[in-house]
Amino acid sequence: MKRAGALRQVSDFSDFVSGRRLRELLSQRGPGEAPRHVHTSPDGLHLLLLLRGRPALQPQVLAFQRLGTGAGDLERSWQPPQPPITGLLFLQSPAALTWVLAVVWEQGRTEVWGFVPALGWQLQQTLELCHGARARIVSICSQGSSLVWCEERPPSDAHLDPGRGAFRYCICTRALEVGEQGAQLGAMRIVMHNSPQYQVLASPQHVFLVPTGATFASVSTFLLIWCPREAKVTVVAPSGGFVHSEVLHCSDFKKLVFGSVGLLLSVAPLDIHTCALSSCGGLLLLSTQGTVSLVQPDGTWRHVYDLGGSCLAQGDPVQLKAFGSTLACVLAGVLYLIDLTSGRLIERKLLSTREVHFLESPSREEEIQLLTPSGIYCFSFSSPEEGGRPEPTLVEMVFEEACKYYQRRSLSSSRLTVEKLKKGDMFQAPIALSSILQHSLLRKGTAARGLPETYTKLLSPLSTDLQSYLSLELLKSCIVAASESEVDRCCEELVEQEVSRLLGLDLDRENLGYLNAVFSSFPKASWKAIRGSLQLQQNGDGLLVARATSDIWKKVLGGPVPNWSQQEEMGLNGVVPLFELICGSLHRFKPKWLPSFVELTQQYVGASWTYSTKEGPESGVPLYKRALAVLDRQRHRLASDRELEIELLLCSARPKAVLQAMQLLIRLRRWQRVVEAAEKFSKLSPLLNKEIFTTLLAQFAQHRDLDPYLAALWELCPADLTSSDILSIVLQHLPGSEGDPAPFSAGGAPLTLALLKPLLHKVAQHQCTQDELYADILQGPPFPPPAPPRQHRAGPKASGQQAGACRTPFPGCDPSDAV
């Protein structure tokens, strides 16, 4: 991780031919001169200066080479009739394994120069890019072996209104191949007609069309990104959050934006002061308010850093350039170094001069070189070997999290800061963890300093977690530089790791809020991640199974139940528990699995908790009601949601929910499904069976839709119902006949006793069976049977036996002893 560094001078121009003159040109700036443009050759041996607005007969293009390169400087000046120079381009020559310099003028004339060590600079060829004599190139760039430019084509009508005159430009491209025999131009192709004025900048695969100060105000609200390989144009309006891509079938600008003109006209114009290309193929934009933003080739717009300060005027000198993952910016004599990955300020240095230019480093992409009137400087970051104290972003996060942790548990009113935490010796845990983290970060690159013995013991149990966390941070940085085709895959992997990491932590309010943000920002990736964590899948019988651990189930069922009765949205004033998040994902991506998931969750609850315990996850609210609340909170209810609601009620197997589901099925007149549910859930309890049968009998009395299912319906009749009970229910629910003319009804076939005869016969037969059983019981021998008569001994009866004497002796008792 980059940390603070220092500027080191690598050249005072003494190693350049005519170095003194180079220093003078950089130090002096005549009145009326435009800012200088400095270019470095691909091999780093030549410095080229483009000086605009100079008096006649003074050089406008000057080249300075390092000593030992060869003889012959390049100094070119042109007479006043010659139009100004639009740009200097270095073009690679794959055949000759060298490079050439192309000097492009406004009217399209191009000079191709080559440097020969023995002869110096040689003019190789002069070409004409434009076809029309009145054409004017306002901006040009190179992409591989092709040139792309914005060309002005003035109309023949001198009295053209400004509105139509603003669209007199076109975007053109032309191949320019440089070989040993010279340069060869290909056919010109017009990418876009009737275009406003744009500044063109080319990355390796895309061309950015950026509005300028001369662009018509109504079309300066967006920029265009053209991909030559896919022939696709992306319209990006960041202030309106608009990104639209389409294949470039038509080369007319007005037709391209016609479908979105209403939205594009309603957003604010772009605020662009300076723009530059990033190393990852994106576009860096600096606003007049000092805000730096990054536009990716797919149209993604990301805020990088806010430099602050006063408002910048259009002519204020600002240098902006990306060196790998570091953004360098010189504003008002201050050098800012910003980490593009995290958006954090690495270094801020006050320079002694405002005349600063950034140079390309041919050897190292990350090396930052600055050209000043006093020489060339290189910015190097400090390292542990140089006495620096690296404090990576992850280490800073350790102390920030520790501050929040200790602050919540502190009884003191004073605020705890990161600086106090680092200086004090009260809390050793963050210091130990930061030392271990630094050791892990520096282990792969340079030799790490040894850890204290007490920390070494902690390194082994933390090694797995450290490796997982470092891999996660590396994946985050890869997403920033990923191509358009790899972003989705990287995001899915990132979300999977984040969800897995969060499920291993305590889901407090902060972690749960972060999990809500992940589900909201990446809904599809979050669904895949949570499905993998729970291991949700269908078995061979088509049933949903889950192989999640008990710890994960506790995380799913943990947390307070949201109060859905409140009017405000939970996403604004609170966070949604994990169970509701999963139900929302199931409803969006696998709605058929939602009832089965609730049933699985209930099975785990029944095996782990009882409903009466306070530690239970439901807190008095059944899980099916929480799932139903998720359906109710959906902004757009689907027709299939009614079926889901019924299935959720039935899968709960609760009497009230089952009766509610049957009422919904009756309302929908789905009679076969009604009978199937009745047959299934009547077996749960006699009381529920009686409620279901009474409900269906009432429906039978009102219409004839249940007639095809009477045989199954009569089987559900409870045993304690009598014929009088049945007739009473039927009479109570008979439809009114006030408006129907006697003797016939307009509602179809009437209810007759013939339809009730099987049920009444069954009930009567059951009653007769019960009566016969009772009669047999009453007429049968008493139970228990009476005692057998006493056996008397032979001999005369005792004459003096009293009436109250014991007739049946006890075991072991002699009858003669009876009183």
Automatic annotation (TrEMBL):
Domain BLOC-2 complex member HPS6 N-terminal intervals: 1-378
Highest rank taxon of the organism: Eukaryota
Pfam families with a match to the protein in the record: HPS6, HPS6_C
InterPro entries: BLOC-2_complex_Hps6_subunit, HPS6_C, HPS6_N, Quino_amine_DH_bsu
Domain BLOC-2 complex member HPS6 C-terminal: from-to ranges: 396-790
PANTHER family: BLOC-2 COMPLEX MEMBER HPS6 (PTHR14696:SF2), HERMANSKY-PUDLAK SYNDROME 6 PROTEIN (PTHR14696)
GO cellular component: BLOC-2 complex; lysosomal membrane
GO biological process entries: lysosome localization; protein localization to membrane
Organism: Platysternon megacephalum (big-headed turtle)
Lineage: Eukaryota, Metazoa, Chordata, Craniata, Vertebrata
Protein's UniProt name: E3 ubiquitin-protein ligase MARCH5
Region called Disordered, residue ranges: 778-819
